[in-house]
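COURSE: Structural Biology Practicum
ASSIGNMENT: Worksheet 4, Part C
STUDENT ID: 0417
INSTRUCTIONS: Below are two proteins. For each, the amino acid sequence is given first, followed by its structure token string. Answer the questions at the end about the second protein only.

PROTEIN I
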Amino acid sequence: MKEKEKIQDEIQEKAEKLVEEEKEKELKKVGGERRRYKRKTDEERAQEEVERWIPKTNVGRLVKKGKLKDIDEILRKHRILEHEIVDSLVNLKSDLLLIGQSKGKFGGGKRRAWKQTQKKTKEGNVPSFSTSVVVGNEKGYIGLGTGKAKETLPARAKALRYAKLNLFKFKKGCGSFDCLCNEPHSIPYKVEGKCGSSKVVLIPAPQGTGLVISNECKKILRLTGIKDIYSKTFGQTRTTVNLAKACVNALKKLEEKGEEK
């Protein structure tokens, strides 16, 4: 009986060792995958998501099958409900807007991409982070999205997804009386956008002027492909989120709409 018990104990020990070794291998694989995921760019992650994508809408199914290939037709006739549609048809660049403020002595003051807020509960303070992402392809396509989550990376992913869903195309041109080049380096006429108390007026400018506007709005206009512009701002311009939304609302008034509905 003692020999049988010894043999059973040895078998159990070997089985436990094998289970532990398998767990260690799985943890190493997971750790390696996480490291590879962190090294990947947004474009590589978007391609992987498109490959794994199982569409849920009719437009998504048509895009996945290759029957719909024109993003302009989709923007004109349909509403985009899946961000993979945009990823599969347009190569977009993204940038974070500095909407937050770092903490520190005397209130910090240095701008950062994460805006931190917190809710008071019985258990204590529950922090949350929000961020804004702008996407564009430098050819007249632009989208702005904001996301909020308990951690920074999920908030960024959510904002990027919403920015792609809010994508639209607007018309560029050369509307300045000082310039007769007829090249799409600026906007065709003066437009105005408003959000909250922030108001932005975009004015066409001649070639070589550059982007005469705040730094965060410069990020938006660079991703649209606009090279020269004048601007005026009114209201609480330090509220970066509203200022960026006002800029995008001004560009939306130049949105290209086809005759077909």
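PROTEIN II
(use this one for the questions)
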Amino acid sequence: MKNTLPFLLVGTLIALMGRCDSVAMAAAALQTVAVATSAAGQTGYIAALIEAKGIAANHGLKIENLRMDFTEAANAVKLGRAVASAMQPSTAINLIKSGTNIRLITPQIWSGNAWVVRKESPYKTLADLKGKKIGNFARVTGAYFFSAVIAKEKKLDIEKDFQAIPAETGALIALLERGDVEAINMFEPYTTKLVLSGKYRVLLDFDSDLAQIFGAPPLKSTVGMLKETVEKRPALVQALRGAYVDGIKLIKSGKDEDFFKANAKEFFNLSTPDEIAAGIVKNRENFADLWGPSFFESQNKILQTGITLGLLPNVGNLSDLWIR
């Protein structure tokens, strides 16, 4: 027994070392991909989710989640800071116009925007706000773009038919709270928090309204890559798309609930049980799970409306934007 024990210990040690080497080799085999996302919100959330849940690893990837300002994230590919970036389709068009050829590879989230009014206000339609003071985002934002498209489809002009006060998120909410405006353009999770307070209601939901008009809600965020990268690294494109598709399926099935609750404060600034419960539901609704020719056609119609309004440059065939 004395003679065999050292051999057994050595054998066990060799086996453990071999197992550690295998684990290290498996980790080394994963391809690290830098993805630029927003510091808070759904684009950062899904990137963190697919990494934490092992979804990225299932596709041979390790996601380096570069969390930053949404505008900064959209430009990260252009600047060479990331391989892929969360961006709006409208941002991709502006990048193409400026000489950075972008391609979109997979969906992330719908707009999530809505016109919000005080609960007791008399307004029933967007037209009822004609001539009134409203709070909107700056003209260069996607939120403004969607509001202009909706107005046009309702025979209204977002710039001429309303007294618009431009502001950022917090200031818009303050304007509505003080009664300085009759409605504000707002997005999740802030819309849910306002409605939960019992003081406000949604007058018009951008996603459901535009879905009725164009056949699909508008994408607020997708994943963009350089055309050169898409052409040279098709396997990477498929792997990253596969990871996002699986992540969205997990969210849509509600199987991300534990991860959402653990990260609700960090990504969505939700803290109370009611806020978190409502946030889970809205998060599930807001993630986009459509892709393919008919979907591209609906998004192109939305983008073309923006071009007609002078909000976007004409960059030619919009179908080239989407990678099937």
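ANSWER KEY EXCERPT:
Q1: Strands lie at 31-38, 61-68, 84-87, 102-110, 113-118, 133-136, 163-166, 183-187, 200-205, 219-226.
Q2: DSSP finds 14 helices and ten strands in the chain.
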